[in-house]
Specification:
It comes from Thalassospira alkalitolerans. By secondary structure, the chain is of the alpha/beta class. The chain is built from 14 helices and 10 strands. α5 packs across α6. The radius of gyration is 21 Å and the shape is globular.
Amino acid sequence: MRFKQLVLGAAFAVVAAQPALADDVAICYNCPPEWADWGGQLKNIARDLKIEVPQDNKNSGQTLSQLLAEKANPVADVAYYGVSFGIKAKQEGVVANYKPANFDKIPTGLKDEDGGWFAIHSGTIGLFVNTEALDGAPVPQSWSDLLKPEYKGMVGYLDPSSAFVGYAGAVAINRAMGGSLDDFTPGIEFFKKLKANDPIVPKQTAYARVLSGEIPILLDYDFNAYRAKYKDQANVAFVIPAEGTVAVPYVMSLVKNGPHAENGKKVLDYVMSDEGQAHWANAFLRPVIASAMSPEASAKFLPAAEYERSKPVDYAKMAEVQAGFSERYLSEVR
C-alpha cells in the first residue's frame, strides 16, 4: 500500500507540474536580452501577462533555419527577425497568419496584409564606435574610412550570410558604393578590401564586445549605440556614414502550430500595444506605431538632418536577392 501511495504521489506531482509549464510559457526564437532591450521587454511581459518568455540568442538566419528544421513538430510560438527573413518564413509556410493589436495602424509595406509577419520597430544602420578604443585614431565618418590602415583590426560586422544586421549593412554599403539589389559587385569588392584590414566577424550580437573595446567599431544599428551612451554611460558615438545608409524593420510572426499558440498571440499583442511600443521607443528604436515615440525619446537620436542620408529600400526585393548575395559573400569574401 505504501509503495502504491508513493507511485501515485509521484505521478500526480508530474501531472501537476505539466500544466503550469504549458500555461505560463511562450517560446520566442531570437529574443536576445542584449539586443533592442528585449531583456526589459521580456520582464514587462512576465510582470503584466504572467507569461515567461525564455531569453534566446539566435540570429535571424539561425531562427529561420530552426523553424524549417522543426516544421513538422514546432518548438517556438513566436519568432523575431529581420524583415527579409520574415518574408521568407511566410513563403516557407512555417508561420501562421495573425493580426495583433494595432495591426491596422502599421503602414503598408511594413506588414504582410494577412498577418504572416509585421514590423514592430526599425533601426538605422551605421557605425557604433567605442571612442576610447580607437588608439588615438579619429572617429570614422564614412564607409570608405573603414578601409584606412589606422583602423586595421578595429572594425567588426556581423556575418552577413547569417545575421540580418550583417546583411542590412551589406545592402547599405553596396548601394553607397554604387551597387543595387540587382548588382552586389560593388559591395563584394568593398568587403574584399575590408578583409585585408583584419575585420572581426561574429555571428551574433556583439554589443558587449564594443563596450569592452574588443571591437572598437561595429557596423550596427543606432539603437544599440544610443543604449550604450544613455543607459550604460559609455563613451561611444553613432555615425551615419557620409555616403548614406538604410533603415530596416524587424518583424515578428506567430509560428504555425506552435505549442503555446494562445500565449504567443498574447505576447504579440503586448509588443504591439501602446505600452509595448512605448518600450521600444524608450529603448531607442523607432516603433512602427509612430505615435508611441515621445519627444523625450526622439531627442536622444541624432538630428533629423543626419537621418536624411538614410534612404528606403525595397524589402521584398531585399529578401528575394539575399540568398544570391550570401552565396557570393561565402565564395568570394569569407
